[in-house]
């Protein structure tokens, strides 16, 4: 991958120096995983940060035989940073939702880079604060109607990882169980709301590919902003 493309794809590196980017790319490792493959296992020691070049992954926590999806990440995002920053085992595992291409950078080299490049260090803190705010938003939405909560999830996925097309914004057609988990609603409510949204023409599920097209993001955003009365 070229330095310019690397910087444009990953917002973490928007302010990094060309020297930093060149060095990171020189020590990076490329990975490919098919859909359904575990990328990182729970309780494995953090030894690298992973950057999503293409595809979708889910971060989940295992409770006995049950798995709960905590987050869904797509192209341009990264994961694994928390385990290396606090030098502790990962509390979650990561599974590919679609075929995924990743770049990994070892923990030692990533930490060295943060110390050498203050701009990158600052940008890293900004993105971690943003994730914390997203977590806070989920708590704020806890008592909202299921439709409002699901609209928030869809808008966030579309704005963060969606691909703009003449038809609308395309995202992965994520399984209802995973959508329900990250939205904190039931699978039954998820199915009912998704069908209603499709009947309204706000979203459309492509039959030939695992793609969900958000056709009317303006209406979804309006729904996401509604407050229960």
TrEMBL record:
The UniProt record lists the Cyclic nucleotide-binding domain at 12-131
Identify the GO cellular component terms for this protein.
cytosol
Question: Which keywords describe this protein according to UniProt?
Answer: DNA-binding, Transcription, Transcription regulation
Gene Ontology molecular function: DNA binding; DNA-binding transcription factor activity
Q: Which domain of life is it from?
A: Bacteria
Which ranges carry the HTH crp-type domain? Answer: 144-218
The yes or no answer to whether the keyword Transcription regulation is present is yes
PROSITE patterns documented for this protein: CNMP_BINDING_3, HTH_CRP_2
* PANTHER family membership: CRP FAMILY TRANSCRIPTIONAL REGULATORY PROTEIN, DNA-BINDING TRANSCRIPTIONAL DUAL REGULATOR CRP
Protein name, entry field: Crp/Fnr family transcriptional regulator
Question: What does the record give as the organism's lineage?
Answer: Bacteria, Bacillati, Cyanobacteriota, Cyanophyceae, Coleofasciculales
